[in-house]
Amino acid sequence: MTGQAGQGKKPRPGHRKVAQWTRDYERLPGIPDEFIAQDGTPREVWTRFFEAFGAMAPVEIERRFGSADRHLREAGVTYRAPGEIADRIWPLSHVPLLIDESEWLQISAAMTQRAELLEKILGDLYGDANLVASGAIPAAAIAGSSEYLRAMRGVKPPGGRYLNVYAADLGRGPDGRWWVLGDRTQAPSGMGYALENRLVLSRAFTDLYKSMNVERVAPFFEAFRDSLRASADRDEPRVGLLSPGPFSETYFEHATLARYLGFLLVEGDDLAVSGDRVHIRTVAGLKRLDVLLRRVDANSLDPLELDASSQLGVPGLIDVVRKNGVVVANMPGSGVMEARALLGFLPSLSRKLLGEPLKMPHIATWWCGQKSAREEVLARLDNFAIEGAYGGAVPGFPGYSPVLPSQLSPSERERLKAAIANRGVDYVGQELVQLSTTPVWDNGRLAPRPFVLRVFAAATPDGWTIMPGGFCRIADQPDARAVSMGAGARAADVWVVADKAVAASTLLPAVDNVRIRRIAGWVPSRAADNLFWLGRYLERAESTLRLIRALSVPQRDPGKGGATGQQSIERIQRMLMIWGATSLTSRSQPAKIAAQALQGEEQFGSALSLVRSALRTATSLRERLSPDAWQVITEMAERLAHEVEDDDDVVSAAELTLQELASFAGLAQENMNRAAGWRFLEMGRRAERAINTTRFARQFASDEATSDDLDILLTLVDCQITYRSRYLVGPLLAPVRDLVVLDPYNPRSVAFQVSALNDHIASLPTLKENGLMERPQRLAVALRSSLVTGEASEIHTKSLFALEQDLLTLADSIGLHYFPHGASASRPEKLTGLA
């Protein structure tokens, strides 16, 4: 056994438990390990951790693990593995990666040096190009990279830096020292997940976290946020985080960072170039954006000058950067430093530009674009791992993993040799190394697993600051050579452990002269669109569920089976079919129709499909929804996805989901700030409720309505109690019509919804400065006037149909006015001035 933990140690509290956990823990042969040092003894920082950990009872440990897992589920912390379309719950390891403070100081110094070196190289490559001219960097090593953007040649970065944030993937080398496995200069990901890892684990193990004196990460994020704001050319700048959108593998991280740092989460379609500035499309028109933290690859940023097929970028953005009109972090073109072809030149460049050797080595790399390196790689091919020189897949081979020549078939090996010989610039040979390991909790014991540590550096006016911790990815298999967040991988929090107590920190400002605000600014058009449709989807789902319940409940009461009752049931069935909730005809059993309308995955109007549509829409609003609101929507989707067994299950599922919809409405009513975002959510709900209530009235309060029809209508709009408290007779046509359509005091009536819509529209910005009513307000005022002056005796089937069409027109006009789509659409910025 290599390095059995605890040998020769005096027993301490929890020591026996630790010995039991680690009894079979062994370093993998020839592989460095975080728990067991090179000399075979446990590292002191891990001993401290496990002794404190072991002081907890097993049931308490499991409870803490469960708490962490539950938080991840309830908060909806997700990711998407490459090539997948479904989100996965974030796989967090329950044991953090521990690094001693003294060792971390060495890592920080090396990262600071490396970040500064790459910054200087970028400045030369896009500036005077002396390094290429002098031969310090071969021109082919730069020109072969698609990340070297000629459009940025000679452009000085607005804000003064090419790299605002830098990251490096690290692992322990065979000698026990940390090595750089790769540089991340394009748009480094992982900071948001590192933050979420810390929040989850520090809450699950609060006492342990404090007792271990873990360095806080909040000061790093504060410095990063403040440096981005300071890079703008005006006070109180607008900062946006540019995301590819909800289909991005790391969209949750984008939303987390935007919410935590107070930035606007935007997509390319949210932005527009006007003059020499970039603006964000809001419901109040264009508003200037000063800083753009990008999570979109540089080639996709501007379809006019870069990749013309990109739909993720902003036409004209590169020209604005040239004119110093917006700070883009990181500067477009900075991704060229991720090329593995450059690794072999960094040691000499460090001595040339910084006057000192690299403080941290990286994997020995031979770029096959040079004759001597190519010949050495071909001569000792089995001793190398072959990688693409400029990132991504190895040319000619599938997947993104290194190609190991020793494991190839003879024909594949010859094909690889020929490719390297013919076009060596596309390949590098790297020394064969295996990742170092760290302990993970595996069925009640500790086991070593390979990991990669990503460390982040942020540029500030006072120099580089390093996040005390990072983003750790752990492989599930002990023989991994690379780790990506796919199947079997997990993440871990990274604790930098100090000898003394660490002061608590926060992102709250320490100064007292902060300008007081009561609103956060106008909501982006895309977010308003999503909020509007989130409200509509949820209200549509509620109406469908009420129909399902009205159809299902009478089936459990044989006394309701008269002829007229059957006609009413057939009307419900017909509505569900017209709404796309079921494909079954009225000849089918009502129970089958109700079950399909509840959870038919192929039915676009089923309750399950509508709630899933709401969930997809909510995914684009992660930075604007509270964890409670998100949890309600996800729980509804999960419940409706569970297969029902009988009629009682259908009714139960419908009623529980209706309760959750009421909970969401309560959260929106009580917890959301009364700004434009809340108004658009409310407008969506009110518009959809008015439309559906009118449809209910048209079907069940028609000129030929029976008492059963009217009774069902009162149930569908939840007005049975109100009606009975007002009238001592059974349902009659005129009183029911008045209550459901015209009554301004009934929160379920059409008139009430229209009145609320009028109030919301009147509070929104005016996009035309001509003093005239804009179309949404004009339609809403006309509708309210007709309902205020209307009488129940004047309502008939045709007028209800006309009212429904007017409501649909109003809903459409809101969308067309505030968040139109399409390149030729008349967007709000065409109607208003710029700010």
From TrEMBL:
It holds the Pfam family CP_ATPgrasp_2. It comes from the Bacteria. The lineage of its organism: Bacteria, Pseudomonadati, Pseudomonadota, Alphaproteobacteria, Hyphomicrobiales. Residues 524-819 form the DUF403 domain. Residues 96-475 form the Circularly permuted ATP-grasp type domain. PANTHER family: BLR2978 PROTEIN, BLR5612 PROTEIN. This is Uncharacterized protein.
